[in-house]
Amino acid sequence: MSKLFTAILFFIVPFTLFSEDTVQVDSIQQPLYRPLIERYILDEIKSLRQENQSLKAQVTKQISEAKLESSDRAINYTTSTVNNIFYIITAAASLLVLLGWRSLNDIKKSLKIDMAKKIQTLTSDYESRLQQIEVKMTERSKVIIETQKNITDTNSIHSLWMRAGLEKGDEDKISVYDEILSIKPDDIEAMTYKADALLEIGEVRWALNLANNAIDLDKEYALAYWQRACAYSQLDKQTEALKDIKKALELSDTLEDELLNEKHFENLHDNKSFKLLIPKS
């Protein structure tokens, strides 16, 4: 794919540079390589779908082969059992002829009773084994289906994150984050990024609720406290904002460099407690 991308660039650039109706570089409004990136993303998604279909076909084939193998074993087991019963009958008849211990009727009744007990024992054992096989096959099928669903969801979420990175408007990003949350409702990262986008469009209380939900799901996620501090700052709740800022810095000290760059903290710049949090250069 990288070679194809390079070849296309070498093919397009000369014609763009030496065309009679050359367009000035300053007039370009959008990157020329954006369609190529989108094409790359579509090819990747197509490849993932093909891999999923191949995986599904392989799983179906393996399940069918396993069921066929179980049926063959059951038939062989039944055939062996019947053969053994006939061998027993033959041996018993031979003993009757040679030794003559009992009358024919007594031996016949005894054989019927013994055969019934043996068949019942074998049947119970066979049914028990079949039930165990069915339970194992059902469990494995559930695991395979769940794994396939997780793979599909993961690929979809990955594609949506890539799409969110390409979106320019905050409302478009919020729509993408909503799609991620519809697939994985407990995705705290998507909640946090959505809260940040909501702050950008002025939906402060909505962003505050999302940050609270993210913290309820993971109390060790620093960015959730950071976004909640931004919301508190916009609502002029400086005490709560400073408390969440301290918690975020405890969980991730790399956020110290962003204290003065965060525009939502501008109304805290005159606060003494906030100034103490700023690292000294």
UniProtKB/TrEMBL annotation:
Ranges that cross the membrane: 85-104
Record key words, sorted: Membrane, Repeat, TPR repeat, Transmembrane, Transmembrane helix
Matches recorded under SMART domains: TPR (SM00028)
Source domain of life: Bacteria
Name of the protein in question: Uncharacterized protein
Organism, scientific name: Arenibacter nanhaiticus
